[in-house]
Amino acid sequence: MQRQHSALCLGLNPQELTNIATKLRAQADRLHDEVLRALIAARQDWTTAAH
């Protein structure tokens, strides 16, 4: 018995899989571009306040 591709097991067609991948990429970009910067700034503030 052959194993089905995981996207097919989820019932996703190629367009639906592409849509999900696009949304995940957008979230990853936001985490990298916005959230990471905010966390770094907060850490710097915390370090500065501790000294």
Structure overview:
This protein has 51 residues and is an all-alpha fold. It has one domain. Helix content is 80%, strand content 0%. It contains two helices and no strands. The radius of gyration is 19 Å and the shape is rod-shaped. The model has no long low-confidence stretch (mean pLDDT 85).
Task: Describe, in short, the structure shown.
With 51 residues, this protein is an all-alpha fold.
Reconstruct the topology from this structure.
Blueprint: H1 6-9, H2 14-50
Total domain count: 1
Count of helix runs = 2
Q: Label the structural class.
A: mainly alpha
DSSP E strands, number: 0
Strand-and-helix sequence, N→C? HH
Strand content bin: under 5%
Helix content: over 70%
| Gap from first CA to last CA | 64 Å
Q: How is the biggest beta sheet arranged?
A: none
Name the quaternary structure.
single chain
Low-pLDDT runs of 5+ residues are none
Specify Rg, calculated over alpha carbons.
Answer: 19 Å
Shape: rod-shaped
Mean pLDDT, to the nearest integer, reads 85
Which descriptors apply to this entry?
51 residues, mainly alpha, 2 helices, 80% helix
